[in-house]
Amino acid sequence: MTESLTVSVPTEKLAADVRERLDPSLDIEVVLWADGAPPRERIDIVVPPYMKQGAMLRASADVGPRLIQGQAIGYDGVADVLPAGVPYANATSVHEAATAELAVGLMIAAQRELPRVVRNQDRRTWDNFWTSGLADRRIVMLGYGGVAKGIAARLSGFEAELVAVASRAREEDGIRVHAIGDLADLLPTAEILVNVLPGGPETRRLIDDAALSALPDGALVVNVGRGSTFDTDALVDHVSRGRIRMASDVFDPEPLPEDHPLWTLPNTLITPHVGGRTSAMAPRIAKLVAQQAARLARGEDPVNVVLGG
User: Fold this and answer.
1) What's an example of a GO molecular-function annotation for this chain (predicted)?
2) Element (H, E) at 58
């Protein structure tokens, strides 16, 4: 026995992509809701806009949703505006590959000094120089969830040593994962420190001045997790003194203000929170939304529920 249900999505493209993936035997209507008044009095699954979901989370209380399906993996601040009793699912399975690609790309670009190469090309300057590379480097990675595992898989062919750190010690996927309590001992050995931790009070400013001071001179810091994991003032201080280098996709504050010192410091590489913004996102989020709709229509529980369930 299946149920009929309505799904709202914020763009015509996503609506078309979801409809293509729905089981035609199920009675599922996909409607557009980007802003303003809701298109139906009752909407079973609400998919808010990507990266701008606060207003719709509040407004969704009026349509009695059975599920709100976010389009990002992170869900910082969602609990503050989520209607009481409504389950919220994140977009696990959508962004891991793209974010892992960017993390490895940032490492390669910084280690091989590709920004310097591009600037030389702009000046038509032939300047060959030695760089650090990834081979034989020791990489300490904070976090061992989906994105971190994607990074580990992509690094496997680079002949680097990867040391994973997470909330608890364990053996997983043939990798020894250290507990966060080991971090102080691991930082002095980290030639590259990669952050993939989620946001929240548990990780806020985990990497402070003391942690940065423990890194060896010339270490590279790569951040594709959350900007709040780092003490930004301490990060600016260490980078400005040439103590460490930085390649980051996320910041605190964000967007990074035009007059922020990180824009102009040497040995910095900045991307504007684009970890998941590749062509892989559209088909993957459509597949996930269609899957969630089918599960609810068949009376099954949704996947990826991280709040309110």
Assistant:
1) oxidoreductase activity
2) helix 54-59
CA dist 115 and 109 (Å) reads 7
- The sign of the CA dihedral 79, 228, 220, 167 is negative
Q: Please report, to the nearest 10 degrees, the dihedral formed by the alpha carbons of residues 263, 133, 205, 170 taken in order.
A: 160
pLDDT digits (tens, 9 = 90+) for 90-140: 999 999 999 999 999 999 999 999 999 999 999 999 999 999 999 999 999
Among positive and negative, which fits the CA dihedral 32, 33, 34, 38? Answer: positive
Q: What is the pLDDT of residue 31?
A: 98
Strand locations in the chain (E): 5-9, 28-32, 45-46, 67-69, 88-89, 138-142, 161-166, 170-172, 175-179, 192-195, 220-223, 245-248, 268-270, 305-307
β 67-69/88-89 pair status: parallel
Q: Is the pLDDT of residue 309 over 80?
A: no
Peptide linkage before 272 cis (omega within 30 of 0): no
Q: What is the rounded CA–CA span in Å between residue 240 and residue 248?
A: 15
The conformation of residue 189, written as its DSSP 8-state character, comes to: G
CA distance 159 to 148: 17
